[in-house]
């Protein structure tokens, strides 16, 4: 059974935790307005991650060249072999001794983990998990990553990324080294700085030194990430630390030339004052127009509050009957979608549908009010062969109920 919804309803951490606990095998597809990413799982562990527009195979060679692990000539030779044999890029690089197996494993692990960790920065999007019997992946060079380890790193990213975003405004930003003396050695290095150097210069950690060496006043933040051997998050975190310590400064784009001062406006003689009676009539029209605008605006605000289910009993007199019915139907449909999602989660956890909607409350998937319609009655719920039905009948004047029918055999609703 497919598990689908939005990241506002069910966070990425919850999705990974559920797949990991249940040891599911399948493909999780996530998409927003900019990107589509697939993450493959085998028995609850991540084994692959791909983007629709930038596949892992396509990125691997480019990243290896930028990080200095292979040369551009070696990449072009591997691409020619791949075109004629259709072998995986990694296998070609190892077979031709362009890179050793351990180096390839490290590179693939970094590529997969970076793509997964980047997903934790998504603020919205849709997801769809499709359970499969088996998932193919490069078992020779990819080690499955447990959902627990990914969640631990994901939690660190969620905690620190907002702070990093404030310090590094954009991946397109360019930084240069500030006029600060840096000690020759770094902390943890085999040849640490002398006491005199430490006294008169700034000392960097090993990770800070790697990032600092890539800053040249021309590379963007994205290019520094691609050249650095650290993960994307660690590169950005160390870059942020260097910026906040005033060891780096942003290269500002040249400002456009100031436009010429506008020509002097010729003096225009002020019109004669209008009679008081005419002014009074004008003010009256303005007052009447403002009153009409406020009335229409008040109705719009009231309708908005109704959609938010906040003050329905108090605002009914302000909204026409047909609008009240439309808003109630919208509220009912929204609640039914949440119930539908909760039933899918319940099914994954218990391998069966709940006997009634109260089971969703006792399983802490919904609050007690979440299974009630806008009138305060429990939603209609019926288990069908291979699925279920949720329905809401607004009143006796509306014979057609609003319903969601879900079947494990159906492609949609």
Would you write up a description of this structure?
It is a single chain. The protein has 413 residues and is of the alpha+beta class. The chain has 4 domains: 3-158, no CATH class; 175-250, Arc Repressor Mutant, subunit A, CATH 1.10.10; 276-318, no CATH class; 321-407. The protein is 46% helix and 16% strand. The protein has helices at 12-22, 56-66, 72-85, 89-95, 101-119, 147-167, 195-200, 206-214, 221-227, 232-244, 276-307, 312-315, 321-350, 358-362, and strands at residues 3-6, 26-31, 36-42, 45-51, 126-131, 145-146, 175-177, 182-187, 202-205, 248-250, 380-384, 387-392, 402-407. The protein has a 6-stranded antiparallel beta sheet. A 3-stranded antiparallel beta sheet has the order 11-12-13, with helices on one face. The chain has a two-stranded antiparallel ribbon with strand order 7-10. Helix 1 (12-22) packs antiparallel against helix 6 (147-167), helix 2 crosses helix 5 (101-119) and helix 8 crosses helix 10 (232-244). It is globular. Mean pLDDT is 78; it is low at 187-191, 299-316 and 409-413.
């Amino acid at each position: 059974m497919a598990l689908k919804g939005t990241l506002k309803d069910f966070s990425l951490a919850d999705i990974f935790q559920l797949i990991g606990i249940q040891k599911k095998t399948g493909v999780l597809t996530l998409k927003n307005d900019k990107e589509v990413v697939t993450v493959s799982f085998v028995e609850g562990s991540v084994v692959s991650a791909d983007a629709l527009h930038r596949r892992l195979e396509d990125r691997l060679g480019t990243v290896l060249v930028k990080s200095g692990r292979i040369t551009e000539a070696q990449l072009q030779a591997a691409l020619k072999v791949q075109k004629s044999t259709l072998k995986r890029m990694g296998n070609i690089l190892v077979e031709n001794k362009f890179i050793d197996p351990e180096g390839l494993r490290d590179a693939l692990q970094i590529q997969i983990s970076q793509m997964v960790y980047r997903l934790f920065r998504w603020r919205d999007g849709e997801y769809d998990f499709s359970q499969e019997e088996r998932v193919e992946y490069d078992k020779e060079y990819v080690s499955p990553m447990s959902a627990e380890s990914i969640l631990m790193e994901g939690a660190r990213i969620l905690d620190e990324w907002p702070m990093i975003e404030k310090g590094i405004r954009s991946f397109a930003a360019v930084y240069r080294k500030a006029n600060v003396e840096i000690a020759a050695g770094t902390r943890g290095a085999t040849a640490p700085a002398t006491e005199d150097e430490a006294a008169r210069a700034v000392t960097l950690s090993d990770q800070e030194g790697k990032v600092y060496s890539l800053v040249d006043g021309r590379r963007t933040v994205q290019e520094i990430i691609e050249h650095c051997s650290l993960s994307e998050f660690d590169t950005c975190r160390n870059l942020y630390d260097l910026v906040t310590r005033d060891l780096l400064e942003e290269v500002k784009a040249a400002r456009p030339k100031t436009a010429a001062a506008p020509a002097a406006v010729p003096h225009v003689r002020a019109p004669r004052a209008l009679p008081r009676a005419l002014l009074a009539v004008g003010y009256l029209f303005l007052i009447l127009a403002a009153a009409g605008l406020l009335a229409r605006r008040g109705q719009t605000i009231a309708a908005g509050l109704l959609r938010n289910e906040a003050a329905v009993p108090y605002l009914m007199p302000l909204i026409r009957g047909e609008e009240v019915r439309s808003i109630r139907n919208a509220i009912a449909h929204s609640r039914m979608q949440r119930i539908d999602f909760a039933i899918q989660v319940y099914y994954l956890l218990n391998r069966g549908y709940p006997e009634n909607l109260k089971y969703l409350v006792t399983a802490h998937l919904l609050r007690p009010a979440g299974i009630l319609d806008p009138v305060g009655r429990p939603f209609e719920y019926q288990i069908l062969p291979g699925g279920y039905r949720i329905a809401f009948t607004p009143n006796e004047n509306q014979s057609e109920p609003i319903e969601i029918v879900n079947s494990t055999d159906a492609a949609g609703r």
